[in-house]
């Protein structure tokens, strides 16, 4: 497959796809509320004559495209559709029209690129097997990917492998990065509550000083990553909020500390949970207080399989050249519920450039926007993945083996 011709085809449709992407951006919908977005996806698929099914995880959509060549394999291509619960500060014409909701992570672009690729694959089914385009709701904390799996995603739409694509600001458009193994982190949250007697701030000897316990805890957890986690592993423990006190001269009876834990290794994850509880208990005991710990595991680490990562790298190189592909990029402490799909089936997530200029802000910032110049590259990447899995690229790999 000549990817320069594929890119040219997408560039010819760029204006149409930009309009679609900006329409989605203007009408953001958050987890499990993607009613309009889901309907728009189905409308476009119907318009292009592509078989599609709705209902998984409420607003999920799966498009089915069958190749015209012999083949029994099936591949899943996943894009997330949901927005964030935050206000947008951009002032351009396609800014969010819904207060408190905003496509601040680029899922509008992800949805557009997969739709674009689905249309091309339907018009050019030069592959053997089946492509399932998975439009997933509720990635932003709602675990929509897990819910789709639990509701029968891979039973109704069998996949031998699954792939995901996410934009990354700070990386030039047309460049792709990924890695074998742990790429994205788990996203756990924890809460530590310190309990004491309270009392007059002028008579601390008559009370249990929870502020001192809090101070020991804050300093103590800094040593967990520094002194308990192997230096070659990546891990983060961060405090995000502290609730304490009612007055300058009253010692509180309760302090609540909440935070997040991020890592890429399941064993490190177990260690972080264990040591966090131990440090909280010992910090409280030093001050005659009591600590209550709640540790909630969120998305698991996203682990890329070797074979699928090799295919993803080859697919990206076919689009942009190997000089624009980094197959050994460092792990990232963001999380993504594609991790559940990559556990259920072998898979790979790739990050694609969203622009490295100062105008392209990081994800989850109120002034973020998806870079429309990336649409042809991401769309072509999806077609190239299908070629690696089910088309001429797959034939070449089999011949080499």
UniProtKB/TrEMBL annotation:
Ranges of residues in domain Peptidase M20 dimerisation: 189-280
Alphabetized UniProt keyword annotations: Hydrolase
Pfam family, one: M20_dimer
Tree of life domain: Bacteria
Protein name as catalogued: Amidohydrolase
């Amino acid at each position: 497959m000549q990817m320069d011709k594929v890119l040219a085809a997408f560039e010819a449709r760029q204006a149409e796809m930009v309009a679609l992407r900006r329409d989605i951006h203007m009408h953001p919908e958050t987890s499990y509320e993607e009613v309009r977005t889901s309907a728009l996806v189905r409308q476009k698929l119907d318009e292009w004559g592509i078989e599609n099914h709705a209902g998984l995880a409420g607003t999920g959509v799966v498009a089915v495209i069958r190749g015209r060549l012999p083949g029994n394999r099936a591949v899943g291509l996943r894009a997330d559709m949901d927005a964030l619960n935050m206000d947008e500060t951009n002032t351009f014409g396609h800014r969010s029209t819904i207060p408190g909701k905003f496509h601040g992570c680029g899922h509008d672009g992800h949805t557009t690129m997969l739709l674009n690729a689905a249309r091309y694959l339907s018009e050019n089914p030069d592959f053997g097997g089946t492509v399932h385009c998975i439009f997933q709701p509720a990635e932003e904390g709602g675990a929509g990917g897990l819910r789709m799996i639990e509701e029968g995603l891979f039973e109704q739409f069998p996949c031998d492998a699954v792939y995901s694509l996410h934009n990354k600001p700070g990386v030039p458009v047309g460049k792709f990065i990924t890695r074998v193994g742990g790429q994205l982190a788990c996203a756990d949250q924890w809460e530590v509550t310190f309990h004491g007697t309270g009392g007059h701030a002028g008579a601390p000897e008559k009370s249990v000083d929870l502020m001192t316990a809090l101070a020991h805890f804050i300093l103590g957890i800094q040593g967990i990553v520094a002194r308990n986690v192997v230096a070659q592993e990546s891990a983060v423990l961060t405090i995000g909020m502290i609730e304490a006190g009612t007055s300058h001269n009253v010692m509180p009876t309760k302090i609540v500390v909440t935070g997040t834990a991020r890592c890429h290794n399941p064993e490190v994850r177990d260690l972080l949970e264990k040591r966090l509880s131990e440090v909280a208990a010992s910090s409280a005991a030093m001050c005659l207080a009591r600590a209550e710990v709640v540790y909630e595991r969120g998305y698991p680490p996203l682990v890329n399989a070797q074979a699928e990562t090799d295919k993803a790298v080859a697919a990206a190189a076919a689009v942009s050249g190997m000089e624009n592909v980094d197959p050994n990029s460092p792990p990232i402490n963001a999380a993504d519920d594609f991790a559940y799909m990559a556990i259920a089936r072998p898979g790979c997530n790739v990050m694609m450039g969203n622009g490295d200029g100062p105008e392209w802000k990081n994800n989850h910032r109120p002034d973020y926007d998806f870079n429309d110049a990336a649409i042809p590259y991401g769309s072509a990447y999806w077609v190239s993945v299908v070629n690696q899995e089910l088309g001429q690229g797959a034939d070449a790999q089999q011949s080499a083996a």
